[in-house]
Design a protein that fits this description.
heterotrimer; A mainly alpha (378); B alpha/beta (275); C mainly alpha (564); B: 275 residues; alpha/beta; six-stranded mixed β-sheet; four-stranded antiparallel β-sheet; C: 564 residues; mainly alpha; 3 domains; five-stranded antiparallel β-sheet; two-stranded antiparallel sheet; 7 strands; 65% helix; 5% strand
């Protein structure tokens, strides 16, 4: 079987994925057209606000795909994925900060505003290089990847699994959040990085830039999805699921379980970092709040709602829950936490396989009912 | 110099990131035994699961190990496969491979396969995929990502499916198999792994008489080319395959010899068969 | 020696004073302030100004005359003088607009409660408008403090005497030294004696007699009062010209040695203090984690809503105090069982309503309970508003236990350390000695077998979970005494609590104890050189690394049962 045929086979076996990719392609074409070409007066016009909002959802969707890869397929419930997202975001934010140049409030050409405010006189060493877009993009991939590598190397080698792993991933993101809140860290402390002006010279406020960012996000989401799908439908994917279901067995037939987990974890962290990097120019700010454990765990619920272990379920979950969040926080802010909390309970107790699994669940339920009835008859 | 040595070990990418090339090629069985267990002790919170156990398995031998509950049979398997580290004693695979210094994966790659007491298969995978995963192959991460089945390998899987009688269920999920079928699948996985030494823990639990006979036949046919260690409670089954039997009691060898010898040994009768 | 022998001057008390004689007044004032009785020896004896007259003299507009009146009060020997002087320095001394009576006024609902400063008789409520405040200046304030200190030196209360000595220590006049020397003779309290010794030694350090000086330096080396060190430093130091200020080398060396001893002791006590802070943080962690140790360690249930159960306990304290505003002293005793019940019942509801459907699926339990934690937070936010509520601290929990001048342990922390240990041992007893404990252990070891033995496992689960949650509530009562009570109270403790349980070893209560206390102490010892936030980060990173090394914690459970 040749490689291309593997890809074809991969997509033929993935009906949900084909539907998702088709919808994504449609949205990616339609939204820019409706925003840029359809006049604002028209009912069909999509406002730039909506474009940015959709772009944000797509970032979340990519993040959700990343988490589904480790949780759904590898059984690693990471409660710290927001950390990778935020690190990617900070790397992008640092580039955008450097782009501001002397257009800041203090007009200092060498230092970002918050450093001037803190009376710093030179750029810390780790800010060097972020003038270059290429360098920043390498960091977007490298920093989350490296953190995941070091953390995963330590954790998986000593066979920290299950809830222990979840708890220490949470501790990791919590520690990072505390660290980034400190002004001395040199990442803008509490306020984070904001007031961005342009990216590669394109004005961040202009419609065209926004639409382009949206389109790039969509394309990278599609790419991330296809790569993830390739991984899970390869033999490596089967090994990973085998590890999830019977770790000892996998070890005894000769797989180095920790390395499989490690590479999937690192790949996932890199995806999360890219999602974060796409997110920052669209929302215009990155602050330590992104590291908060609540964000990580909210992300878990997106995946759970959509249905884990399917990849496209994660996308559906991310978009639905975030749409609900946008709606509630606008209309009934005090209800949102109730709704989110309820969602956690309902999904875990009643919908273990999420929305995607709902159809199957109903089917088995019907079958069970039918077989019961037939039993009663006989 | 030890830390430096370790550092160098970590820097060596092959060792750090992929299965090291410990292979059966280094296996030296020139002196007869393939497995040397010498003076091994393991204790859990003061309870001595193994007490200075010494045991040798010859190359190509089929050995049955019996003993009452808590005699240390499973712990012995755990020690051989690297799941449990002994407090004292040495375990050598052939003349050269010190199993107490190797990880489970390295031990598996060196050619020791294990079937668990409770059948452990990959429930979400099909029978075919279970066997594919167990197959002797390059099990490093990158190779696995791009691995494709060759015709030869496909044939081998088909062959094993026929041997274990699961060819009809090739595409069925392993979770849906009966207990006996899971036992067979696990044995099939052992065959795919093609190890030099097979450790088989209670292979016939939950099997019908017919299935038992077939298992006995299979295990006997494996001996010679492979070494097989069977832990079993079912005396009838043990008698049907046994050439040499070892009786474990309280973590040490109580008696060793043919089934008849063992059965007539007064100490064995006392602690085990006498009941 | 007494005050009555010092110089006195009788004034015509009709005011304003017509016969003002500045020289005499200045002399008298000097004599009074220095306490020197030379003037008394020379001047003809004068009758002391009666107490009532001195009180009345305080109304005078001249600060000088007021000052004289203050001295007269000191010398009157009247027990009421101290209260009047304290009121004066606190700005609570007034005189009535109508009859000119000098009163001590204390704020009360609606107006002020007044007491006659001259007779000590209660005068009942008055309106502030009818009273005029007696004003003092800064010079007088200093004089008043010294005067109060002298009067307090004769107090029956050792604390009052101690603070009096410390006040006098700030300005040691020869007269004051003589005063202290007398006081030293029949002082009973050890603490006051030590303070007196320090004061006398400080006075002797610069005496003429070398032996006395050396003895004083030796005495000071045992003292932890900052004044003791301050007086030694110049003895061992070089002046601006690079020469030693103190010509005598022996004295210099003795002083340097004494400073070293003092510094060593100070360091020791500051270590003890840090350790105490650490222990108190550790016991807070213990309280927060111990309930979790049960639900997580014994039952294997991850309860992310544990922090919110702690928060419910804290809010229960708040509500209890609202319900009994006049009995704040007792409120905590009521709040402990109340919080146990509230949190315990909520816990049982969570277990019966959600968790029991998720046994054997720890990750799902984690998510569901996290959802519950959000709901509980929002509920509290809706009922009590998102703002922090203030919980009052009863009198018996405020203040501190002073071990010596550099080490004092606050009572609230002290009580919380004791309380957390009590809770810990009570819980240990419940699990070891009671039937419920037996059942809990049976179920946690082998659920199926326990059920076969006729144990109602569902019931045991609910009760165990209730117990763990109830203890979280009790922890909330303790926390309400240390931090702000708000909807996010629980969040800040949940990660720490998990860290403690995981660090100590799951399923081992002793591990939780050791884990909590050691993490608390380590955290506090890191704080001085790393800062609070960085210390916390370092501890988190340490635990993350620790778990890699020992995945089962400090005190792991061993055996085959754990492996499978």
């Amino acid at each position: 079987m040749s490689r291309t045929s593997l890809v074809t086979q991969m997509l033929t076996n993935d009906r949900g994925g084909r539907v998702f990719l088709a919808v994504l392609a449609t949205v990616m074409v339609a939204v820019p057209v409706l925003n840029l070409l359809v006049p604002e007066s028209s009912a069909l016009h999509v406002s730039t606000y909506t474009v940015t909002l959709l772009g944000k959802y797509l970032c979340y969707a990519l993040l959700a795909v990343a988490l589904d890869l480790v949780w759904g397929y590898c059984g690693i419930l990471s409660l710290g994925h927001a950390a990778f997202f935020a690190l990617g975001g900070y790397a992008m934010g640092m580039y955008l900060m450097r782009r501001i140049g002397d257009r800041g409030v203090y007009g200092n050409p060498d230092l970002p505003d918050f450093m001037v405010f803190l009376n710093w006189h030179e750029l810390p060493w780790y800010w060097h290089g972020f003038d270059s877009f290429l360098f920043a993009m390498i960091m977007v991939v490298l920093v989350p990847g490296l953190l995941a590598f070091v953390f995963g190397w330590l954790a998986f080698r000593s066979r920290v699994t299950g809830v222990y792993l979840s708890i220490i991933t949470q501790a990791l993101t919590f520690a990072l959040m505390l660290a980034f809140f400190r002004n001395e860290m040199g990442f803008g402390g509490n306020n984070g990085l904001t007031d961005f002006k342009d990216i590669l010279g394109f004005d961040l406020q202009s419609d065209a830039t926004r639409v382009t960012l949206f389109a790039i996000t969509g394309a990278l989401l599609a790419l991330g999805y296809v790569l993830s799908r390739y991984i899970v439908s390869s033999k490596l994917g089967r090994v990973v699921i085998a590890i999830r279901d019977a770790e000892d067995r996998a070890r005894f037939i000769g797989y180095r379980v920790e390395l499989y987990k490690l590479w999937v974890f690192v790949f996932s962290a890199v995806l999360a970092g890219i999602a974060g990097a796409l997110y920052v120019p669209q929302v215009g700010i990155i602050n330590p709040g992104e590291f908060s454990p609540l964000n990580s765990i909210e992300l878990v619920v997106w995946v759970a709602v959509g249905g884990r272990g399917t990849l496209y379920g994660a996308v559906i979950g991310a978009v639905l829950v975030n749409y609900a969040k946008t709606f509630f926080t606008g209309a009934l802010p005090e209800v949102w936490l109730f709704a989110l909390g309820g969602l956690f309970v309902v999904v875990t107790v009643l919908l273990p396989r999420g929305i995607i699994g709902l159809a199957g669940q109903i089917k088995t339920h019907r079958q069970a009912k039918a077989s019961k009835q037939s039993e009663a008859l006989t | 110099m030890k830390p430096l040595h370790r550092l160098r070990g970590m820097m060596n990418r092959r060792r750090a990131l992929d299965v090291p090339p410990v292979t059966a090629e280094r296996l030296d069985v020139s002196h007869g035994p393939i497995l040397y267990i010498e003076g091994v002790s393991v204790s859990f919170d003061g309870f001595k699961a193994l007490n200075k156990l010494t045991l040798y398995i010859d190359d190509g031998e089929l050995r049955c190990i019996i003993g009452p509950n808590g005699a240390g049979k499973t712990t012995m398997m755990d020690v051989i496969t690297g799941k449990t580290r002994p407090d004292k004693g040495t375990v050598f695979f052939g003349q050269t491979l010190d199993l107490t210094q190797m990880s489970e994966t390295e031990i598996a790659a060196a050619g020791i396969g294990r079937k668990f007491q409770k059948p452990t298969v990959f429930p979400q995978h099909s029978v075919f995929e279970n066997l594919e995963l167990a197959m002797q192959a390059d099990k490093r991460v990158w190779s696995t990502l791009f691995a494709e089945l060759s015709g030869e390998q496909r044939d081998r899987i088909e062959e094993v499916m026929t041997i274990v009688g699961l060819q009809e269920l090739s595409k069925g999920r392993a979770a849906l198999l009966s207990h006996g079928q899971k036992q067979w699948l696990e044995i099939g996985m052992l065959l795919m792994q093609n190890p030099r030494l097979l450790l088989v823990d209670e292979p016939v639990a939950g099997m019908t008489h017919q299935e038992m006979d077939r298992t006995a036949e299979l295990l006997v046919s494996l001996a010679g080319k492979h070494s097989v260690v069977v832990v079993e409670h079912d005396m009838e089954f043990v008698r049907s395959i046994a050439r040499k039997v070892t009786v474990l009691h309280e973590g040490a060898v109580l008696a060793e010899g043919s089934m008849d010898d063992v059965q007539n040994n007064p100490r064995v009768i006392d602690v085990y068969l006498g009941a | 020696m007494g005050f009555t022998t010092t110089g006195q001057r009788r004034f015509a008390l009709n005011h304003p004073f017509p016969h003002f004689r500045p020289t005499l007044i200045v002399c008298t004032l000097l004599a009074l302030l220095s306490g020197h009785n030379a003037l008394a020896d020379d001047a003809p004896p004068v009758a002391p100004m009666p107490y009532a007259d001195a009180i009345a003299a305080l109304k005078d507009r001249s600060f000088d005359l007021k000052a004289q009146a203050v001295d007269a009060l000191v010398q009157s020997g009247n027990p009421l003088a101290l209260a009047a002087l304290k009121a004066l320095v606190d700005g609570d001394l007034y005189y009535a607009q109508d009859d000119g009576r000098v009163v001590i006024a204390k704020d009360a609902a609606g107006g002020v409660l007044t007491t006659d400063a001259g007779s000590g008789a209660a005068l009942g409520e008055a309106v502030k408008r009818d009273l005029k405040k007696i004003i003092i200046n800064n010079t007088m304030r200093n004089q008043l403090r010294a005067a109060i200190a002298r009067l307090s030196l004769a107090s029956d209360n050792p604390d009052a005497r101690l603070s009096a000595v410390l006040e006098i220590l700030k300005d040691l006049t020869p007269e004051a030294v003589a005063l202290l020397r007398t006081a030293r003779e029949d002082e009973q309290s050890r603490r006051v004696r030590e303070a007196l010794d320090t004061a006398l030694a400080i006075a002797d350090v610069n005496a003429d007699n070398k032996r006395a000086r050396l003895a004083a330096i030796d005495e000071l080396s045992a003292s932890l009062y900052p004044e003791a060190r301050n007086v030694l430093v110049p003895l061992a130091a070089k002046g601006a010209d690079g020469e030693f200020v103190e010509p005598d080398a022996e004295i210099r060396e003795a002083a340097a040695g004494a400073i070293r001893i003092i510094d060593g002791k100070r360091e020791f006590y500051s270590t003890v203090e840090t350790a105490f802070f650490g222990l108190s943080l550790g016991s807070v962690l213990l309280l927060a984690a111990i309930g979790l140790a049960i639900t997580f360690g014994v039952m294997g249930v991850i309860n992310m809503a544990h922090g919110e159960l702690i928060m419910l306990g804290a809010y229960t304290t708040y509500v209890v105090q609202l319900l009994m505003p006049h009995h704040i002293e007792w409120s905590l005793l009521v709040a402990v069982p109340a919080a146990f019940l509230v949190a315990g019942l909520v816990g049982i509801a969570i277990e019966r309503g959600v968790i029991r459907f998720l046994y054997g699926r720890p990750l799902e339990t984690l998510l569901a309970t996290f959802g519950i934690s959000l709901i509980l937070q929002q509920t509290v936010r809706t009922i009590f508003s998102p703002l922090n509520r203030s919980v009052e601290t009863p009198q018996w929990m405020s203040g501190s236990l002073e071990i010596n001048s550099v080490l004092s342990l606050t009572y609230n922390r002290l009580y919380i350390v004791l309380f957390s240990l009590m809770v810990f041992f009570a819980l240990l007893a419940i699990l070891k000695k009671t039937r419920l404990g037996l059942h809990v252990r049976a179920v946690s070891q082998n659920r199926a077998m326990a059920r076969a033995m006729g144990i109602r496992t569902g019931w045991v689960d609910a009760l165990t979970f209730g117990l763990g949650s109830g203890i979280a509530g009790v922890a909330g009562v303790a926390l309400s005494q240390l931090t702000n009570v708000g909807p996010n109270l629980g969040q800040s403790y949940i990660i720490d609590s998990f860290m403690v349980v995981v660090f100590g070893g799951v399923g081992n209560l002793w591990g939780t104890l050791v884990g909590a206390l050691s993490l608390g102490v380590v955290n506090k010892f890191l704080e001085p050189w790393a800062g609070a936030v960085l210390a916390k980060i370092l501890v988190l990173v340490f635990i993350i690394l620790f778990i890699q090394k020992k995945p089962r914690g400090l005190f792991p459970q061993k055996g085959r049962a754990v492996e499978h």
